Amino acid sequence: MSFVFYDTETTGLKPGFDQIVHFAAIRTDWNLKEIDRFQVRSRLLPHVVPHPSALFTNGLPIARLLDDTLPAHYEMVRSIRRTLLSWSPSIFVGYNSIRFDEEMLRHALFQTLHDAYLTSKHGNCRADALSLMMAATTLSPTCLAVPRNAQGRPTYRLEGLAAANGIAHGDAHDAMGDVEAMVELCRMVYDRSSEVWQRFVRFGKKATVVDFVESEDSFFLTEFYSNEAYHAPVTCIGPDPPNGRLCLRLDSDLDRLATMSEADLPAALCIKPSPIRRIRVNAAPTLTPLYDAPDLMLGGLTHETIEAAARRVKEDQLFRQRLVAAYAAGRIERPQSLLVEEQLYSSFPGPSDEARMAAFHDASWPEALSIVQSFDDPRLRAFGSRLIYFGSRSSLPPELRIEIERFLVDRLLEEAAGGLTLSQAILALDTVSLEGRPGMGPLLADYRDHLTDRLSRVTQYRLHHLTASQPASPTFAGTARATVVSNEVT
């Protein structure tokens, strides 16, 4: 199996609404020797408004994002998918990727009618280099030098960590430059702390995590908050579908929890930090066997004390069942969003729709319209109509084009549509500090001019073309709202 190290540069931080504009990846063998590399850029989707902070951070002028010679977003995602499938099976590694890059990639795949879970299917698994760096510097302190901020706290920003360890990183916030720096840092851990590296690789596999968590009577879970590592001895008490396992902290007051009433127990489990820790078995958690735990993890406890507490919990099935039930009772369930961009995890497409998704990409635009109209899943109908609109607007009936253009205008002008609006972006420009970034003023000034001009044109378009339009049909409203763009207002 190989490794694929990857990074994305995006228009902002909101998966489903922001987009990838630059994707880069390096494939290595098992010993981290480079085999291949790939990168691709995309021009801006017309209904996406980049956050000024993203342009400032990435140093991307708006003119570059609007360059017509760049591939369309759909073409870029198709290219990414082809490459990553050709590199499968692999372990996919990013830097803070489980929380961010992975989410951006999943949404990009789903919104272009592909299976969102490429990096966890096809024999693939995933891991996060940021967690590796934090674990390595905690368990093997001499492995890497860690810079500190003005408050004296450790900071794991990629560019700072690379510089502190003598890694040239001249292209910070360029996707390929960030991947190169990440690979070099991983090589340092690989060379200097083989035990941490092997554990990192081992728990990148979901099946291995499940087996370990369910078979070990006790082990240490390491979680990271504000760049600090927190270690807790835990034991698994039950599943939390679809990809979770609930674990009880063995340094909790077990006597108190065991004697609490059914009414009081849910509240006791909701306090922060909760005595119940949820492990995402498909998200490469940082786990350490009890017998491997160094003194810094034990926190004054002994192995014998932890083992005794674990035996007590494991032998009391009723206690475990009460804890799982109370945790579930205290959980606040979020209602499903009405915005289609926020419904990725609401369900999986059925087998028939999966076949239609595959057929869509080989069809002509008129054929693609017929396929889209036959989808059972309203999310796929919304996203598919958007793709046809971008690729061949004339293939859509006039009433559908007007419908879609109305949602375009909502996306650009209305906060309720979910994405950053043109007005919000203009206001955000006033909060971007130029401190330490000389020469960035013209980039932001050009972006302000672009936003102001576009806001005027889109507002006029709504006034003169959409005010008399008929109400939107259920196909694009409610749970299947499509937000797409008219060529006339880009």
Name the features.
about 500 residues, about 15% strand, 5-stranded mixed beta sheet, globular, 3 domains, 5-stranded antiparallel beta sheet, single chain, PX Domain, Nucleotidyltransferase, domain 5, alpha+beta
Walk me through the structure.
The protein has 20 helices and ten strands. α6 crosses α7, α18 crosses α20 and α19 (422-429) packs antiparallel against α20 (441-466). Helices cover 45% and strands 14% of the residues. The chain starts with a strand and ends in a 24-residue tail after the last helix. A five-stranded mixed β-sheet has the order 3-2-1-4-5, sandwiched between helices. The protein has a five-stranded antiparallel β-sheet with strand order 9-8-7-6-10. It has helices at residues 52-58, 62-65, 73-86, 97-111, 129-139, 158-164, 175-192, 194-202, 206-215, 254-259, 265-270, 295-298, 303-315, 317-330, 351-360, 365-374, 378-391, 398-413, 422-429, 441-466, and strands at 2-10, 20-28, 34-41, 90-94, 125-128, 219-225, 228-240, 244-249, 276-280, 286-289. The chain has 490 residues and is α+β, with helices and mostly antiparallel strands. The chain has three domains: 2-193, Ribonuclease H-like superfamily/Ribonuclease H (Nucleotidyltransferase, domain 5, 2-Layer Sandwich), CATH 3.30.420; 203-330, Exonuclease ExoI, domain 2 (PX Domain), CATH 3.30.1520.20; 340-489, no CATH class.
